[in-house]
Amino acid sequence: MTLPVVLQGRLSVPAVCAPLFIISCPELVIAQCKAGMVGSFPSLNAREECEFEQWLIQITETLDAYNQANPDKPAAPFAVNQIVHRSNNRLDEDLALCVKYKVPIIITSLGARVDVNEAVHSYGGIVFHDIINNWFAHKAISKGADGLIAVAAGAGGHAGTLSPFALIQEIREWFDGPLLLSGSIASGDAILAAQAMGADLGYIGSAFIATKEARAAAEYKQSIVDSSADDIVYSNLFTGVHGNYLKPSIINAGMDPSNLPEGNLSTMNFGAGRSKPKAWKDVWGCGQGIGVVKDVPSAEELIGRLVSEYDAAFERMSEMYKSSA
To answer: How big is the CA angle at 198 (ends 294 and 140), to the nearest 5 degrees?
Structure first.
């Protein structure tokens, strides 16, 4: 698969940084793009519409200046995540600003809409859509999405349950366009493995929570450093949609991670004087790939490691093929 033109010659490693609710911010996105990975953020992270426009101005102007100063090694493009579900009452206004500032890549979630895709295509942008199964994949492409983000088991936050092997295989039976894989990808080795399965790009989120630029509490970052896949809990309690969360944050919120009920957090009784915890703020989303996270580097340092790991893994695979030929 040939990458979209906007990505060609712009990536230091074949991967995209996932938009992190509450956590992604202009400083993180800019650092990611300068280091050669697509940086992204949810538009709703900017709490007000006027703030969202300021973020777009900051990112576009900073990256434009960087590209002018580094014509031989331009930054990767950035992306904005739009929640297209009807509950997002800011969608029309935020989408209009994306059109105004010609955001190169839009990542759509919780629904697929023809009008949103057409608006992005009007200025030459491209749309990647989150999906958790083959049915949603077909629906997204039929409505005009340019590429798919396959959210497999082990992804941080809201996640699917399918093995990446099964999900990628089924999608590749009919779709030859841009395909990204999400789910437990936190190393260069995992990026190469995603490509070996048939994906074009890895999609990495949780590892970037534990970076200096990320707007996450220090305790959240340290919890990721201290945790592993065994510390991830899959539950629909906190938002009504199944997702992966850090066990220590669930314990700190006064709940037993081994005995979480199904359903709605609002129906639970936490006792006098104790407020109900909030998803993302108090109960922290995280994926299963965090066992490789051992410290809190800058985004540039983390991407540098991903590049080195990817190159080393590629070299190992090449040697294996040579020795078996």
So the answer is: 100
CA-based torsion, 285, 291, 293, 299: positive or negative: negative
Rounded to whole angstroms, the Cα distance separating 104 from 291 reads: 32
Q: Are 117 and 144 in contact (CB under 8 A)?
A: yes
Bridging pattern class, strands 157-158 and 243-246: antiparallel
CA angle centred on 303, ends 297 and 309, rounded to 5°: 110
Residue 145: helix, strand or coil by DSSP?
Answer: coil
Q: Which residues of 217-234 are buried (b: 16+ CB within 10 A; e: fewer)?
A: eeebbebbeebeeebbbe
Concatenate the DSSP letters of all residues of 211-264 into one string: STTS-S-HHHHHHHHH--GGGEEEESTTTSS-EEEEHHHHHHTT--TTSPPSS-
Q: Please, where are the H alpha helices in 26-184? A: 26-34, 49-69, 91-100, 114-121, 134-142, 164-172
Structure tokens at 43: 């538009």
Structure tokens at 318: 């090449």
Tell me the pTM. 0.94
Contacts of 130 (CB under 8 A, 6+ apart): 107, 108, 109, 110, 149, 151, 182
What is the per-residue pLDDT across 215-272, written as a single tens digit (0 to 9) for each? 999 999 999 999 999 999 999 998 888 999 999 999 999 899 999 888 667 656 655 5
Length of the chain: 325
Amino acid identity for residue 78 in this structure: F
Other Cβ atoms less than 10 A from the Cβ of 175: the count is: 18
- The DSSP call for residue 45 is G
For residue 1, give the 3-state DSSP assignment: coil
